[in-house]
């Protein structure tokens, strides 16, 4: 891969440097090795107005040679050493007037004394403007130091690149967007050091770990350091005492590490010395020590011996274990350390570490740690934890086989417990709710005998919620959760049933109460803590249905902040972020998050099917709302369509994505029929909140038949969406322009900017037809503002500029022609005759002044009337 590296994010530094040269005649750029001082200096030289520019690169080897840095300018020097300085100055500046030749000196701290004196004379005698770079922590020669003392020359610091600048830079280098967690990892490994970043990108691209998936660049795995990068890092570290190497090695196996642990292992003075050398950073508030650069750890893992690292892992694990209390993160770190350390591996520690990894949704690590626990010990608790981890990570069949074998040798109490786990995994990870109910039925007597019947009912309620039986699910879950102590996993699944059920029924207040109960349970029951992420998804779905999009952003951001830095977690929480942005009508941001989710989930096709499907469905919707027909079709074609079977939970989402796909293809009638059909299915299952969203979409597409049903729903469904949708449908049926303006305002007030845009566009058309041109112009202006803010380019919005010239049917025919359909195919799609299609096209030619099909399509896609 040929990579071109533009200068990004240095506008301020460039402007300051140019100004300093113009004002003071000389300037010094300072910064750490590799941050980009030389690049900024070269850019300043290239952009300067000076006709002649001299570049002098000082080096460590040239430092020992008198005038070594200026050797190329000494060729015509005579034998008189007293005249040599002037002769070199003449060679540098030629016959040019004073201050017209720009002299740039890179790494001025490496100049030999005589070269430094020449440079100082250029400044002192104002012979030439001088731009110098110097590395932080280095002392320049005395001649340079003398002209800098007392603030005589301006110093401009060149800081490392921020994360935002790294994202911008790499987007341009790679020719496409970089997934956010990959960008964060690149920044974390390099701390914004441009030289490290450039080498690391080149190495990882060459190794095939930096690849493009789903339109996003993704970096997988840990870096494998090339010799050139190791040399770069080694030169910045310098030679170290053994005690400082010990600090790096401890952090190479455990970064971060508790300050008290590091001091106990190596002593306080050594830790302080490492901090002074810039090898580590100490967070006094959190009590943690981090490597100053993660790449330092990569270098030491590569260079330290295996035996030494295994011994260190054991010592660090023991020291962390001696702390008075341990968080889930510390448990995980201890488990990882002893798994790869010398000595006996404690199976109970490995098991509890696996459970802690599950809590934080680090599924791969949970499987790895629990498998190790099973290998060390045949303990049934370890086997159950391993089975749970396998189920969560997508190994459904293997997990069920393991649990089935355990059930066959279990007593009643354990059999009932295992049945709960099997049923949960079959329902929510494998997608076999009927098999899950059969498992619960087979263990019903055992459940009653050992007091687990309420837990069984709670889990069964979640199955009913998935099958689209919200009223029954809420009733059963309510009874189960009030029936005394429950097994924590079952209690969480019962809470899911309440959240899903109340969301489907449009009971916003009860939904919020149930979700709060679930999050509280996650805090007090570690074995159920990992389920809070899916709880958040279900809460967000219900909030979106009701019309509370800003609340979805809060939930998504909170869960994103709680997730671990692992691929599965990134895929899931990126999906949550995408859903939140879609709910708010932030279509560009939604597309980016959903592409990130798909890119991460693609690495794990077996364990993240639902993530791929949901992200694909919502990406299809976002792209269709944005008017990007080819991309929307591609996203839909790549999405697995498993939402139309027994599992009803996400059917409305899938059906509405199809409706929006019809809309972006220009088929208003198919879009309306698809949305209305989705509403009919939602009504059949008793899911009124879904019915509202589907009827709203149909109204956005131009349907005028949803008024009566939305009026009925407005008396039972909570949240602002149903009222706005009812006002929208009522105004559209009457062609009531002011009423449509009011509906647009209602949508915008609760955050649905795409619906607000469509309602405003319909208002503009209705008002124009009634010759209320001033009001029409105002409504059109509102629609355009909302389109810009949201990124929307919907069928209804596009029709706004054409409705004064063309009928809705003519617009639909032209849009279908734009998608490449023949007249016969258009007629089949619209259930009409070819002659009728030809008639619509003929009248459209007349009204638009076009002569060909291509001209007519171009007119509709932007060459028509610019505005009403």
Automatic annotation (TrEMBL):
What is one GO biological process annotated to this record? Answer: regulation of DNA-templated transcription
Superkingdom in the source lineage: Bacteria
Provide this UniProt record's keywords sorted from A to Z: DNA-binding, Transcription, Transcription regulation
InterPro entries on file? P-loop_NTPase, Sig_transdc_resp-reg_C-effctor, Tscrpt_reg_LuxR_C, WH-like_DNA-bd_sf
Stretches assigned to the HTH luxR-type domain: 799-864
Which Gene Ontology molecular-function terms are recorded?
DNA binding
Q: What is the name attached to this protein's record?
A: HTH luxR-type domain-containing protein
